[in-house]
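re: that chain from earlier
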Amino acid sequence: MAGGDGGHRRAVTQPGQDSRISAVSRFSRFSRSGLGLIVLLLLISAASSWWGRQQQRTLGQQVAALALPGDIRMLSSETCAVCTVARRWFTEHRVPFSECLIERDAACRAEHQALRAAGTPVLLVRGQPQLGFSPERIQAALKATVPG
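^ sequence. v structure.
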């Protein structure tokens, strides 16, 4: 116990070694906290994605329950990407709908022109036209009108 160190030995370090050890320690803490942040962000993203799918599933079930055959008619185009999304959504959620293509069906094209629609899809929900595809708007229109 010579030297008055109270029985504790102190490591002998070279000049500048303390700052390197300190930098390594800080980097290690930063890496762990950075990794934790990345994991947290991934978990939040996964939870958000799951919640969005749950909301769409619920909305799809509600629209399917409200819609009767003949309630929804889609005037679409062969090159319309939104029409493809709408078609897949209706099919996935088992929502009854009918569809006509303005390029192939003269009556469909005439109806589209009579509506003076700016594009496709045009959804006729119980006879009421909607430009574009929005499951929420379709649900609202089905709730607001009486089947007929």
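Residues 5 and 28 are 30 Å apart (CA to CA).
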